[in-house]
Specification:
about 700 residues; 3-stranded antiparallel β-sheet; about 5% strand; mainly alpha; globular; HNH_nuc; DUF222
């Protein structure tokens, strides 16, 4: 059994009721909050700037609704259908957004002229407007109320709008908007929250997009605006990119030469060139890279809860693959999303089509131009050959007269058929072998016959052929519909089987204890071995266990498996009970909580690690930079060097706290930071929940 279960039960038993309250509060909901600006209007010119920004957001929403209404008046029914000469190329049609399919391709041209936009900008405006109106109505309402500004819209368009399920998309949007209500947040913070919610609630689609993105990993080159400069872009997974950046930064920092005029970024670029172009000749010192990985027990045991790598949200499977690679000393192996062993049939990434070469995938304008050129060439050939001229020549008067006579004869024949005696036997017509007995209704101009009633027979046969073709198409459509329904049933059964399995039960668990109880024995054993690993090898530090309040997600303590075992028994040297099963009186033993205060100005290692893990990013409202420095709220030595008096800041905001005149900062013991500007505006931030 998992040795730390008893210890975990000891310190988490009191949180059972709060866990249940948190579970009920976290149930999916599509209810929007009451939208209002996060701060009041300041006096003077700053207030006028705020009012202008809110009016800009409102007009952004007004424009979106108006463009969507205009697009509805330009249906695609009037455009040439796919396959017709002069229609939009198949490649461009396939790359068109789904919300644009019902809209005429020429609507963007009309909007382009009306608003003086480029064609690309006009198409993007139509797509964005339709997406907001049809897929993100809550975001549009928040814009109209001034709760969000246009910069907040784009992360939601990129992360939330693509979610295929209307229910899941509505839940994610509502949860993000509820979280953002009343907060001063930047678009990057909103994007991080949206990414976390979308990854947790739409794990299958996230895994599919990640698998497709991994296949697009690569390096690209583009020129810079400054002549003689260029940019090399490497698209990598988060662990690879973070490790590469940290390694280059460490190598650059090791080049400690006061006379070197290069900045840190320049040194990193030179280190990269030396490593790639002059391997073995650079003399760069080897470095060790430290990546901070945050993963819940549910994530490690196979659940869908996302994790963090250096503060960036990543899917659960990527976290598991990274930890497995480290545990197996396979850090250098390329990361890839593989099916979870606990879910053999679920979340299998869909293989995308291989990208075409540039020669096979020209831009859509070239494709359409080539198709139109071929169509005009074929039309010209037929005109010169007289095919189209013959077809377009006026119909002779005698032919028209014959057709009129034929129509009259058909009417007479229909009347005779109605008057036919009831005892008439069908099929008593003369045999067709004798030309004299030939039915005049079978004559047809295509057979060299003079115009006659056979023309109508041919039309009947053509109509019958068309009916048969329509019947076959209907059968094919019915077969396709049955195939889709079968796939949907199989998908629902697959999802139900996964939810009933260990990984599904772990994902549904409302606490770490419930996840441990639901997990497979092999997963619990693997987790125990991981938590028991010591420093050295591929790890820069032993894994830490973050003890989190189940109701608020706040960090309570940062410990490890050894410390848990020590705290779980009485500590008497003569005690021979297993630490995780000791039942002696534990009243005098220290409980779990933040590390004790440090006597000096600089926090000790444990306290420093705790505060950085609690804050993770700069605590200034709207800032997303990593924590660089820990600040004493009450200056030392008047204030203690303790978790209740320390806050994580980036370098710039740390300077601003001490140097910017008129600003006020208030810190509560639980880490809540309130910032008041010189004009009286108030913004509050809390440590990000786990």
């Amino acid at each position: 059994m998992f040795d730390d279960v008893a210890a975990a039960e000891w310190f988490a038993g009191a949180r059972t009721a709060s866990s249940e309250r948190r579970r009920r509060a976290a149930e999916p909901s599509t209810e929007w909050p009451a939208f209002a600006p996060p701060v009041e209007l300041a006096p003077g010119p700053l207030g006028r700037a705020q009012a202008a920004a809110r009016e800009t957001a409102r007009q952004f929403a007004v424009q979106a609704r108006a463009v969507a209404e205009f697009a509805a008046t330009r249906p695609a029914a009037g455009d040439r259908a796919q396959g017709e000469p002069g229609a939009m190329s198949a490649a461009r049609w396939a790359g068109r957004a789904e919300v644009l399919r019902p809209v005429s391709e020429w609507a963007a041209q009309e909007l382009m002229i009306a608003c003086s936009l480029s064609l690309q900008s006009a198409e993007a405006l139509v797509e964005r407007s339709l997406t907001l109106v049809q897929r993100l109505p809550g975001t549009l309402a928040a814009l109209e109320a001034g709760a969000l500004h246009p910069g907040h819209v784009f992360p939601l368009l990129e992360i939330v709008a693509p979610i295929g399920s209307d229910r899941v998309r509505g839940e994610v949007e509502a949860e993000v908007l509820r979280w953002a209500a009343g907060r001063v947040i930047s678009p990057a913070q909103l994007a991080d929250k949206a990414r976390r919610e979308a990854t947790a609630r739409d794990a299958r689609a996230t895994a599919r997009r990640l698998a497709e993105a991994i296949k697009r990993r690569g390096v690209s080159l583009r020129p810079e605006r400054t002549p003689g400069m260029a940019t090399v872009t490497a698209v990598l997974t988060v662990p690879e990119a973070r490790a590469l950046y940290r390694a280059l930064a460490a190598m650059a920092d090791a080049l400690d030469d006061p006379a070197d005029p290069r900045g840190r970024g320049q040194k990193m670029a030179d280190c990269l060139l030396d490593l790639v172009l002059r391997p073995g000749e650079s003399g760069l010192v080897p470095v060790q890279v430290l990546l901070t990985v945050v993963a819940s027990v549910q994530t490690l045991l196979g659940g869908d809860q996302p994790g963090e790598i250096d503060g960036q949200t990543v899917p659960a499977e990527m976290v598991r693959q990274l930890i497995r690679a480290v545990a197996e000393r396979g850090v250098s192996a390329p990361l890839a999303v593989r099916p979870d062993p606990a879910r053999p049939t679920q979340r299998t990434p869909v293989e995308p089509l291989p990208p075409a070469s540039p020669a096979e995938d020209p831009v859509w304008q070239e494709i359409e131009q080539r198709e139109l050129t071929a169509w005009w060439a074929e039309t010209e050939r037929r005109v010169l050959a007289g095919e189209l001229i013959d077809a377009l020549e006026p119909i002779p008067d005698e032919v028209l007269a014959a057709w009129a006579a034929e129509a009259g004869e058909e009417a007479v024949r229909a009347d005779l058929a109605l008057d036919e005696p009831a005892d008439a036997v069908p099929g008593d017509d003369p045999p067709a072998g004798d030309p004299a007995d030939r039915d005049p209704w079978d004559a047809h101009p295509a057979n060299g016959d003079p115009p006659g009633p056979g023309w109508w027979a041919a039309a009947d046969r053509a109509l019958d052929d068309a009916s048969q073709a329509l019947l076959r198409a209907q059968r094919a459509l019915a077969h396709a519909s049955r195939t889709v329904r079968t796939a949907e049933c199989a998908d629902a059964a697959d999802e139900a089987a996964w939810r009933a399995g260990p990984a599904g039960r772990v994902t549904a668990a409302t606490s770490a204890l419930a996840a441990l109880h639901a997990a497979a024995e092999s997963d619990r054993r693997w987790l125990a071995e991981l938590l028991g690993a010591t420093a050295g090898g591929g790890l820069a530090d032993r894994p830490r266990i973050a003890v989190v309040d189940e109701l608020t997600g706040a960090l309570v303590a940062l410990t490890d498996s050894r410390a848990l075992r020590r705290l779980a028994h009485c500590g008497r040297p003569a005690c021979r009970r297993r630490p995780e099963r000791c039942a002696h009186d534990l009243t005098g033993r220290p409980g779990l909580g933040p590390p004790p205060p440090t006597d000096g100005h600089d926090p000790e290692t444990g306290l420093d690690r705790f505060v950085r893990a609690r804050d993770r990013r700069c605590r200034f409202p709207g800032c997303r930079r990593p924590v660089r420095e820990l600040d004493h709220h009450t200056p030392w030595p008047v204030g203690a060097t303790s978790a209740a008096n320390l806050t994580g800041f980036c370098t710039g905001d740390h300077r601003g706290k001490h140097q910017a005149p008129g600003w006020a900062y208030t810190l509560t013991p639980d880490g809540t930071l309130t910032v008041t500007t010189p004009t009286g505006l108030v913004a509050t931030t809390e440590p990000p929940p786990f």
